Automatic annotation (TrEMBL):
Full protein name: tRNA N(3)-cytidine methyltransferase METTL6
Subcellular location: Cytoplasm; Nucleus
InterPro entries: Methyltransf_12, METTL2/6/8-like, SAM-dependent_MTases_sf
Family of the protein in this entry: Belongs to the methyltransferase superfamily. METL family.
Length: 223
């Protein structure tokens, strides 16, 4: 199928920003990098313990930005089955279920605490949603979702939190549950986003890959 790209090109750096990135070449030690990978789930769980459901704003722009959610229907009131991979506490999931009543959603997250927040949400209903904990790099989605059953997968600010060497494992996992010819909707951090420029020296893990003070990580994508 066709790969469609919408959105913005990379920012043009100011001379000062370009110089800052040029100088920032020292990588976090291999020992610390291995520790961050080993403790990735714990760090995201602590993130949600600290921030509860209050950190990210609800994403009411999903259906506006991703016209494919409507375009992929063969008829107007067709019921869609979606998978929100990396659902967090439901900031994208619940607005989507409210806006489109003909959706059944599977949703999963790396953090057990985030999954519990989703289940406790007043809008959560097992008739319209199934949420479960999952490490997308190693837990088989087929344990919770039938093969070739999903019309749309959303990957929204999720892949950036995963080590670049393991991103292909996530996509292979998703592929098993996606219906042939259907789509993945992807949005994430782009190269030279302001978030990338805010990292201080000593935060760099690799090319376009950084660690925050709380141990969570972020990759910045080229087109």
């Amino acid at each position: 199928g066709a790969f469609q790209k919408k959105g913005h090109s990379a920012r043009v750096l100011s001379p000062e920003e370009a110089e800052k990135l040029r100088k920032d070449q020292v990588l976090v030690s291999e020992f610390k990098q291995l520790k961050l990978e080993k403790e990735a789930q714990k760090n995201w769980d602590l993130f949600y313990k600290r921030n509860s459901i209050n950190f990210f704003k609800d994403r009411h722009w999903t259906t506006r930005e991703f016209q494919e959610l409507k375009a992929c229907r063969e008829f107007a009131d067709q019921k869609l089955t979606i998978l929100e991979a990396g659902c967090g506490v439901g900031n994208c999931l619940f607005p989507l279920l409210e806006e489109d009543l003909n959706i059944f959603a599977y949703a999963c997250d790396f953090s057990p605490r985030a999954v519990e927040y989703v289940k406790k949400n007043a809008l959560y209903s097992t008739e319209r949603c199934k949420v479960f904990q999952c490490d997308l790099t190693k837990d088989d989605l087929l344990d919770n979702i039938p093969a070739d059953s999903v019309d749309v997968v959303t990957l929204i600010f999720v892949l950036s939190a995963i080590h670049p060497d393991k991103m292909h494992l996530v996509l292979r996992n998703i592929y098993k549950v996606l219906k042939p010819g259907k789509c993945v909707l992807f949005r994430d951090y782009g190269l030279y986003d302001h978030a990338m420029l805010r990292f201080k020296s000593g935060s760099k893990l690799g090319e376009n890959f950084y660690v925050r003070q709380d141990g969570t990580r972020s990759y910045f994508f080229t087109e």
